[in-house]
Amino acid sequence: MILKEMIGSHTYTFNSIKEVLAKASEQKSGDTLAGVGACSKMERVAAKEVLARLTVGEITENPAVPYDKDSVTRIIIDDLDRAAFEKVKNVTMADLREWILAAQNGDIILEICRGLTSEVIAATAKLMGNLDLMYASKKLHIEATCNTTIGGENVLASRLQPNHPIDDGNGVIASTLEGLSYGVGDAVLGLNPAIDTVESTINIWNMLGNLRDTFQIPTQTCVLSHVTTQMNALKTGAKADLCFQSIAGSQAALDAFGVTVEMLEEANAMFRAEGSAKGPNVMYFETGQGSELSSNAHFGADQGVMENRCYGLARHYKPFLVNTVVGFMGPEYVFDAKELLRAGLEDVYCGHMHGLPMGCDCCYTNHMPTDQNDIENLFILLAAAGCHYVMGLPQGDDVMLMYQSTGYHDVAAVRELTKKTAIPEFDAWLQANGIWVNGKPGENFGDPTIFIR
Amino acid sequence: MKEYKNPEQMEVLKKATPARIGIGHAGARYKTDAYLKFLQDHAAANDAVFEEVPEDVVKSIGVFEVKTLCADKQEMLKRPDLGRLFSEETKKEISQRCKHHVDVQIYFGDGLCSPAIAANIPDLYGAIEAELRSQNISLGTPFFVRYCRVNTTRTIAPLLHAKLACVLIGERPGLLTSESMSAYIAYNPRPDMLESEYTVVSNISRVGVPPAEAAAYIADLLIDILDKKCSGVEYHARIRE
Amino acid sequence: MEKNQIISAGIDIGTSTTQLIFSRLTLANTGGFGSVPKIEVVKKEILYRSRIHFTPLINDEQIDAEEVLKIVLEEYMAAGYTPRDIDTGAVIITGETARKRNAKAVLSSLSEIAGDFVVASAGPVLESVLSGKGAGAAELSKSMTGIVANIDIGGGTTNFSFFKNGEVVATDCINIGGRLIKTDGERITYISSVLVPMLVGHSVDLKIGDSLLEPTISKLKELCLLMVKEIAKHCNALDGEIVPDVITFSGGVANCMKHPLTDFAYGDIGMLLAKTLNCCKDFDSYRIQEAVETVSATVVGAGNYSMEISGSTIMNQKGRFPMKNIPVYSLKLDCIEDIAELGKSIAELKRRQQETAMETEAWESKDARSMHNHYAVTFSAKNISSFSNIEQVANTLVESYQKEIDADGIPIIIVQNDLAKVLGQALRRRIGRKKCLVCLDSISCEEGDFIDIGEPLANRQVIPVVVKSLIFENR
Q1: What is the ipTM of this complex?
Q2: Picking from A340-349, C128-137, C215-224, C365-374, which range would have the lowest pLDDT averaged per residue?
Q3: Pairwise CB contact (< 8 Å): B123 & C418
């Protein structure tokens, strides 16, 4: 295999496919920190040239972490649709890229994708500009059903994130009612708890469940504690719909989260059998570029490849929701607005290619040189790219996790701008409550006191 | 048009959470007041990260200053690995200017929040020092580290042969406060120690736990950690026994 | 998060009934991960409720202490607890009973067998607050905007408590209750002297021995109507400034309102009073909501709500708790400017303390464990936060109390601002670790209050404190 490219008088050589993939990546501070990124713009282009000539088969044979050493690799390879793979294994990445961009029917792309490993899908993104990513991403609609069904062509769903510094019940309810009054919460009412105990998880879960039942809100609930805490909560009588876990792209990185693939398997089975949701899609995963490097479990691969491996793992469990928390890891992984925008577009495209109903937490921390304008830009681009859902927070400010994301108002404004709606059942509920009427704010828009008797 | 069907209830809801609720709307966008308040809070937080601790602040605290391998703030943010290391020269300086073989080595770092130093150190360090001295704990020479990450403890404690290191460091600001500080405490810190060996006291600020009161808690904690000869997860398991 | 559970007992010896509950209070650190711990009571579960006993009396003026003791012991047995299992608790003699001649003796004998309880007595203010909290009115007021009033109608007194947002805004107490007149099935056997002004004022002619036939029945109905009008008049507190939006009823009479029986079913006029209340239109302008507890509101309040928790504390002594009936004096120390005047303020405080101490000595000395010479000093220190100012405050406090400290007195300091630990350490550095010292925060009290300080709980992380606004008014 020749991993060499001559540009002008300079010859760029690469020692492995892993290195080609890393150096072909657009600039990210995390790849620089890991020492795997391209050293110059020209080296990056050279790597892309080499990558374009590689075939699907060649990349498939070179996973980022060896099959026998890693449970994530095994899931990705074992889940591969062999027939689909056979169809494309000799296709070059250049041709695959063009076929994806030219294809009219998203379902045909998704069929072929079942034969593509996460490394292959990651590679296609490295040969695409931002608009390419959006253009391809937009064709892919992935339906999944928990209580309601996400993935309709014209739907822009939202997770309502009512976090509170100490999980105070009244505080959580206050933020939830406010969010509902802005039309947010159709993807899930999902709280990140400050306190990860079974008791507290049950309390919040039942509180959200009761609220949902009282007002007959067609949606699902989730408390984002550790997966084992949620399983115990379910066993002890929580009214639980969706099971959440943060995941990473290698077995070693999963270890750092205290998670194994067996644990996820068990959780999925348990929530299907005993959870309060209709299903069949009952899992919710979060990812984010850089988490493998942060636990030193990236195996010399770039963060784009490792992120894709999360999606390869996720698709095994047919989740209802998956979202990248694109700007939460910090500036050492995703530095500024340019890197943030790129990472967001890559992740949503790659997630869609994995057949996942992909969402994005368009967010940033206060130690990044970014601001609210930057994530508003990312949000509107993702809406155009057919992203399945985003987050909704009170003015985008998370008072527990101390970072900023998209606000309740932003969800409403982007729906209005792009003529998208909430998940149909939820949209009907909003109409009935005078919150969102005919694609515009209704008379009760922004008034949570309508829910108080 | 009336904004809320039940304005009094809106006040009850607002009281239940520090989140930005009940802020109204202009179409599907923010009202001007809410928009500007957010910008103000974010500016404070962002500036707190990117601005430098002024030299005269360091002087007024009365300590000497050293710097990690980071060239500037930007590099510190992108390269946490450099933010924990010192040049040979700097290590020599620290070694020469500080007491060795102490029980407790306390030092200060800008971390992710520069204003935290001026806002907290005088009360925080003053009260810790007074209590430790009264209990005959030997205390190292304090100093300030610019572009400092928590893991500087792994270098500093072995360098000075300190039993315990405690770095008082600016914490990543949220929009509610932009001068918060944390104390990271490690017993017997060394290059290969685990992250879980840190005991952390966070949210020290005028709006969180006031620095003087936090200091009293930290002083007791330091003495107890010295006594139990462990910190972090192991220490918490011990005190729960 | 570390968690601790403690068992609390509540004993209410009322005018007509005596009750007891055991509850489990869950303490937890709500300070958030990695922050300075903040210990609070996060959950209250009632584990055992006693039967409702009639309060045993020797005669109309004296409680039968021996019988009360027997009831309490029996209930401990039935619940499966010994005094040693109980971490904290409150014995409360309420209502008209609190004026019975041997109330104090009953209390002290009870608290000996009922474990090391923090509190042993209640005046009408604390009693009103406890019944309101036990009835759920405080909680209810948190979930709405207006004011919730609870009216606890017992055997001898009616207690009013007004809550806004969970906080007490006013209390009131009047001598109206279902057991101020007793009957034996055929005649009136007892008329409380507190009724005399009402009977005389409205020319209602009732006396002991009247048989329960007409016209006595009509006269009793007339009396009940007068009582209900009186209750209605007190629904607005502080000269009409506080008007409730919601009213809840608790106490034995509220129970009768819910479960009507024949007029003299309990051998008193409680049922008649309840029926009159049910028909009365005077409460129509308020929203009436059901109380969480009716007949047991006060005992639930005593078991679950009498105690406050002080988290940041310095205590330098062992084996000297509980400290009971400690009078509170307040000091003006809000801001930095007050520090210069602190010595003078303390001198004035001492003068006030000595004057009051002489007055109270008489009854104080009867309590075996009363702290004759001890009193608590409270101040806000609202605008004081710097370490150097705290050191100054510590200097002046120690100078001013040097004599008392040398004589092994125990300075008890209650800071309203979040400073107790740092001030406590500063004081301890000055007086040395061999001397005793108590420094508390998170407790709101003011001059004129009395406090009980209990045995430290939850690995000595917290101290339970009961603030009694007025005990046994001198009448």
Answers
A1: 0.94
A2: C365-374
A3: no
* Cα separation, A188 vs A218, whole angstroms: 10
Of C279, C274, C322, the C-alpha closest to C453 is: C322
Q: Is C142 touching A (CB cutoff 8 A)?
A: yes
- Per residue in C160-200, pLDDT tens? 999 988 888 888 989 999 999 999 988 999 998 889 999 99
Q: Which of B4, B29, B78 is nearest residue A331 as measured by Cβ atoms?
A: B78
3-class DSSP string for C301-352: HHHHHCCEEECCCEECCCCCCCEEEEEEEECCCCCCHHHHCHHHHHHHHHHH
> Are B23 and A178 a contacting pair, CB within 8 Å?
no
Mean pLDDT score, A127-132: 98
Residues of B in contact with C2 (CB under 8 A): 240
Please state which architecture CATH assigns to domain A4-126: Orthogonal Bundle (1.10)
B207: number of Cβ within 10 Å: 11
Residues of A with Cβ-Cβ distance to C143 under 8 angstroms: 170
Using CB atoms within 10 A of its CB, is residue B138 exposed (0-12), middle (13-18) or buried (19+)? Answer: middle
Q: Which domains does chain B have, with CATH numbers?
A: 50-240 (3.40.50.11240)
pTM above 0.90, yes or no: no
Contact flag C30-A170 (C-beta cutoff 8 Å): no
State which amino acid sits at residue A147: N
Paired sense of beta strands B104-109 and B143-146, if any: parallel
Given the structure tokens 């930007």, which residue do they identify?
Answer: B74
The Cα–Cα gap between C35 and C29 comes to 10
Cβ of A195 and C33 within 8 Å? yes
Q: Which of C15, C180, C9, C161 is nearest to C94 (CA)?
A: C15
Ranges of each domain in chain A: 4-126, 144-451
pLDDT classification of B189: cutoffs 50, 70, 90:
very high
Query: In angstroms, rounded to a whole number, what is the distance separating the alpha carbons of residues A359 and A338?
Result: 19
Q: Which CATH superfamily is domain A144-451 in?
A: Aldolase class I (3.20.20.70)
Question: Cα separation of C55 and C66, whole Å?
Answer: 11
Residue A323: closest CA among A231, A418, A252, A392: A392
Domains of chain C: 3-122 (3.30.420.40), 126-297 (3.30.420.40), 313-467 (no CATH)
